[in-house]
């Protein structure tokens, strides 16, 4: 049985005080309410809050994620944050390859592959984001494009390592737009990606890899999306900033 995820990506939102309240509310709700025991709730918070918020976790159903990392362990890289630093701050997951980082910070598949290696080397879990633009979908090249992102950033891993990666399929046209991929569109891509993983690693390995959907997930659409056979939960941006709504997403399995 694959682990299911409700993973939040706060992006560059929330002051320290606001974030503390939100983080505590979610951890308390997830602890006290009925959430499927196979669901992991992950909150991707701004880097300066990681160490402090990780100490607020009061249930093993909740983990904290960083939204980025630098692939080198230490050194003269002013302003960057390494994976050993994240680990020492209590971080278990690292979101990488988000389309915003690919677009605004020119992150390439190769650079993201280096981050994957750095995260796995420290025993943390990468949440590897991929997804096509609307133009690519309209051109009909979306399947090949997203498969290529997996090939370029993950296929250097051996079978043992690749099973430690969580994949988040996030069509760029659905991120922060209020437009959600239909459950059929999302399931179709997730199946294509799982088949792609199976073609390289075999079906058993592919069946062990959690693939999340991201793009305007809300409590209202989560149950239908998460009921699809190849969708193992969501990476949630906007709706993760509301404790009640995000907890309800976590209860949608
Ligand atoms: C995201 O940023 O990963 C995301 C999916 O955002 P939203 O849920 O707001 O579309």
From TrEMBL:
<protein>
    <recommendedName>
        <fullName>Triosephosphate isomerase</fullName>
        <ecNumber>5.3.1.1</ecNumber>
    </recommendedName>
</protein>
<feature type="binding site">
    <location>
        <begin position="237"/>
        <end position="238"/>
    </location>
    <ligand>
        <name>substrate</name>
    </ligand>
</feature>
<comment type="pathway">
    <text>Carbohydrate degradation; glycolysis; D-glyceraldehyde 3-phosphate from glycerone phosphate: step 1/1.</text>
</comment>
<feature type="binding site">
    <location>
        <begin position="9"/>
        <end position="11"/>
    </location>
    <ligand>
        <name>substrate</name>
    </ligand>
</feature>
<keyword id="KW-0312">Gluconeogenesis</keyword>
<keyword id="KW-0413">Isomerase</keyword>
<dbReference type="InterPro" id="IPR000652">
    <property type="entry name" value="Triosephosphate_isomerase"/>
</dbReference>
<comment type="function">
    <text>Involved in the gluconeogenesis. Catalyzes stereospecifically the conversion of dihydroxyacetone phosphate (DHAP) to D-glyceraldehyde-3-phosphate (G3P).</text>
</comment>
<feature type="active site" description="Electrophile">
    <location>
        <position position="98"/>
    </location>
</feature>
<dbReference type="InterPro" id="IPR020861">
    <property type="entry name" value="Triosephosphate_isomerase_AS"/>
</dbReference>
<feature type="binding site">
    <location>
        <position position="176"/>
    </location>
    <ligand>
        <name>substrate</name>
    </ligand>
</feature>
<feature type="active site" description="Proton acceptor">
    <location>
        <position position="170"/>
    </location>
</feature>
<keyword id="KW-0324">Glycolysis</keyword>
<dbReference type="GO" id="GO:0004807">
    <property type="term" value="F:triose-phosphate isomerase activity"/>
</dbReference>
<dbReference type="InterPro" id="IPR035990">
    <property type="entry name" value="TIM_sf"/>
</dbReference>
<dbReference type="GO" id="GO:0006094">
    <property type="term" value="P:gluconeogenesis"/>
</dbReference>
<dbReference type="GO" id="GO:0019563">
    <property type="term" value="P:glycerol catabolic process"/>
</dbReference>
<dbReference type="InterPro" id="IPR022896">
    <property type="entry name" value="TrioseP_Isoase_bac/euk"/>
</dbReference>
<comment type="pathway">
    <text>Carbohydrate biosynthesis; gluconeogenesis.</text>
</comment>
<comment type="subunit">
    <text>Homodimer.</text>
</comment>
<dbReference type="InterPro" id="IPR013785">
    <property type="entry name" value="Aldolase_TIM"/>
</dbReference>
<dbReference type="GO" id="GO:0006096">
    <property type="term" value="P:glycolytic process"/>
</dbReference>
<keyword id="KW-0963">Cytoplasm</keyword>
<comment type="similarity">
    <text>Belongs to the triosephosphate isomerase family.</text>
</comment>
<dbReference type="GO" id="GO:0005829">
    <property type="term" value="C:cytosol"/>
</dbReference>
<feature type="binding site">
    <location>
        <position position="216"/>
    </location>
    <ligand>
        <name>substrate</name>
    </ligand>
</feature>
<dbReference type="GO" id="GO:0046166">
    <property type="term" value="P:glyceraldehyde-3-phosphate biosynthetic process"/>
</dbReference>
<dbReference type="Pfam" id="PF00121">
    <property type="entry name" value="TIM"/>
</dbReference>
């Amino acid at each position: 049985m694959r682990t299911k995820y409700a993973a939040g990506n706060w992006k560059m939102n929330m002051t320290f005080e606001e974030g503390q309240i939100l983080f505590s509310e979610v951890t308390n709700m997830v602890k006290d309410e009925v959430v499927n025991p196979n669901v992991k709730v992950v909150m991707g918070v701004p880097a300066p809050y990681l160490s402090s918020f990780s100490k607020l976790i009061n249930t093993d159903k909740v983990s904290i994620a960083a939204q980025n990392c630098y692939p080198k362990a230490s050194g003269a890289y002013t302003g960057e944050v390494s994976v050993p630093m994240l680990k020492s701050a209590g971080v278990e997951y690292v979101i990488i390859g988000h389309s915003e980082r690919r677009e605004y910070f020119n992150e390439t598949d190769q650079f993201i592959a280096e981050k994957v290696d750095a995260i796995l080397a420290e025993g943390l879990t990468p949440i590897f984001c991929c997804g096509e633009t609307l133009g690519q979908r309209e051109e009909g090249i979306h399947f090949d494009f997203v498969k290529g992102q997996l090939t370029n950033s993950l296929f250097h891993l051996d079978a043992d390592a690749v099973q430690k990666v969580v994949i988040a399929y996030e069509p760029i046209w659905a991120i922060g737009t209020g437009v959600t991929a239909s459950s059929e569109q999302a399931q179709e891509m997730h199946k294509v990606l799982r088949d792609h993983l199976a073609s390289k690693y075999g079906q058993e390995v592919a069946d062990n890899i959690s693939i999340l959907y991201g793009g305007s997930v809300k409590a209202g659409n989560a149950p239908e999306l998460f009921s699809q056979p190849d969708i193992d939960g969501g990476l949630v941006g906007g709706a993760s900033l509301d404790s009640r709504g995000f907890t309800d997403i976590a209860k949608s399995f």
